[in-house]
Amino acid sequence: MKLLVFYPYAPWPLDRGTYQRTFHLLKALALHHEVDFVALIEKTEGTEVTDATKAIFEEFCNEVEFIPFEHPPWQKLFPQRILNPLPGNVHHWQQPHISEAINRRLTPGRYDLVHIVDLVLVPYVLPHVHHTPYVVDRSRVDLQFQLMVQATQKKPGLRDRILRWENNFKLRLYERKMASTTALEVVCGPDDKVFIHEKISPNAPVMVVANGVDLDYFRADAAPDARADLPTVIFCGAMDYRPNTDALLWFFESIHDQLLKLIPGVRILVVGKNPIDEVKAYASRPGVTVTGSVPDVRPYYRQAWVQMVPLRIGGGTRLKIVESLAIGTPVVSTTIGAQGLDLVHNENILLADEADSFAAAIARALTDPALRQSIEENGMRTAQDHFGWPAIGARLAGHYDSLISHSSTHRNS
Prior knowledge:
Helix content: 40-55%
Shape: globular
Number of helices: 16
Radius of gyration: 22 Å
CATH topology of the largest domain: Rossmann fold
CATH class of the largest domain: Alpha Beta
Number of domains: 2
Strand content: 15-25%
Distance between the termini: 21 Å
Strand order of the largest sheet: 3-2-1-4-5-6-7
Largest sheet: 7 strands, parallel
């Protein structure tokens, strides 16, 4: 089968959870099908970086094309945005020269299937759906994500309420349009699937493809660093990503002081790229280190006794959990943070959803070596059995064979 894979970015280096997912799925699809890869590259990234990055993908893709890209300005509410049927976040990714490049490629019969990442690319492939079906891999379900973000915010003023209503209304309509035209929506967890079927369309074709991990890279002996002498908790992720910054806000406002009372010497490592000012400020708290970007996250995982995942905004990749399991760092998470991974409380993870119970769960893991070892061993076994990228990608590639076979049968009947 011949696939066109179209991304809104080139997922390299692998320093974001979404990049981990999209890179490894692309590589797995290329093992089973012939793949042409097209990605948008923001002009600020530079030609030298683009050329070096392109060579990475040319190792396993048939053709690789990077399209220089610059976001158009955000539209003013009146009159442009109100009169535009596209949701604002979708319009923000639209440029005529990209449409021309995709139109040149998507001629009838050239590809069996188009695989895109996220809702923002749908307008580019929608004009061709009558001859080439498309699948959308969703790093998050946009409407679900927006509603969750809004639920954590303070009561908005009148202007913000208008903007929310306008955005949510258009986003719901566009989600429904995509659900009725795509051959498949690939989501990260069953909660995403339930939301789509309950809030968008009960007939939407949805497949859950949980996230995986590079088991050769994230293994305990790949980072032989000893555990830190003092009780140490890590939080790992992109520090300019709203669910992560919201998780830290909740932790430091509602949980950290309780944890300090239970474990006075506890250290907190906040590890990840692009920390916003709010995140940097946490370094002024007792025992807290904010590292910013690091060349290799594995030594930080290995020195930590526990990883915390105090997420309140769900959906998305949840890569930090499967990485932590694979490398042998026990995880304490909210239920929403671990959704879709089929992990079992007290067996391969600890789960808690209230501030006091979350602090208590971290303290329990830090003070009970036998529990910590049990969760560590069970977590590594779970990662080995269920979360390797090659097996996950092979299942998706096989499903694409079935999709095209069914589509061909339907056209010929």
